[in-house]
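Supplementary material to the annual report.
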Amino acid sequence: MQLVEGVLKGNRLALSRLITGVENDTPEGRDALDQLFPYTGKAHLIGVTGAPGTGKSSLVNQLAGLYRHPVDGSPALRVGIVAVDPTSPFTGGAILGDRVRMRDLTGDPGVFIRSMATRGALGGLAYQTSAVAQLLDAAGFEVIFIETVGAGQSEVEIARLAHTTLVVEAPGLGDDIQAIKAGILEIADILVVNKADHPGVENTVRALQSMLNLGFSDGRSSGKHLLSSQKTDCPEADADPELWTPPIHQTAAIHKTGIEDLFCSLQEHKAYLERTQEWERRGKARLRRELDELLQATLLRRWQSRTPEAIYQATLERLERRELSPYRALEYLMKSEWIS
Ligand SMILES: Nc1nc2c(ncn2[C@@H]2O[C@H](COP(=O)(O)OP(=O)(O)OP(=O)(O)O)[C@@H](O)[C@H]2O)c(=O)[nH]1
Ligand SMILES: [Mg+2]
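Predicted assembly:
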């Protein structure tokens, strides 16, 4: 297929076309994923999540800049950015906003930015996002940021696609820390309190710190730096190389402060994952989850296509009237007569 070859050769137009195909779940998109899948599995997938407006896009912009122009002279990496907006319909607004915030990166052929919104595709948004990340991976982008807005279940699912998850907070979003409220703190590999130029940063950091300490029963405390990867100027650390304790970073993305330390933590986390075989384990777990989710969605669709809706509705009503228990209802719906 011409587009597939184009993607492998780094043709951006071909990549855009195939991403659209994958988003719309077209046969062409599926074929492309098939053919490109052997070329995937190399990229460092970095999830960036947190409440709206905390500065995720601004941080990604700055971090991508460091991957493109490493301060220590190590080779520049190609960076893909997928901004996922599960809440809003596919309007131009969000994309335009991101384009403005990521203006520094436009025109760089080593950067590819794509926004996507909810579609009713098979396997849901998490699967779609994963498929788009796979295309970028196959196209040779070595670092892929996946930005999700908000802090709901779909963000958690999308974050589980990533090797490394950044959870971004900002001071002054109310008394509660958003991530704790939404239960996403446990998925964080790295915590960032952005907008450190605003008042109240210390409170937010302190609250995160105490939440993290509560979470570690083995006495680990957060905020430490671990061993750095060989290639960066990042400081060597003395922590146990087999353990990862999520560091808390303070950044001000618009003033470019704290970004290099955050970049170091990303490198350290990657090195930690590789050193402990966690990289491979996360990769395998992700593939298995993906297969299981596809299987579930496909089996459900197949069952729905063979079972009259009226039978489902009538069973549901009997369940609601307590005439059937959920298990009896299931048995009834699974009866082979419906499946013609
Ligand atoms: N004062 C201050 N403003 C910031 C900082 N980082 C980002 N902003 C501003 O905060 C606003 C939101 O930044 P974004 O980077 O779009 O935040 P986001 O989390 O990607 O937002 P959504 O994708 O809409 O959830 C923009 O106006 C930024 O200029 C910072 O460190 N300090
Ligand atoms: Mg954003």
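The CA atoms of residues 83 and 147 lie 5 Å apart.
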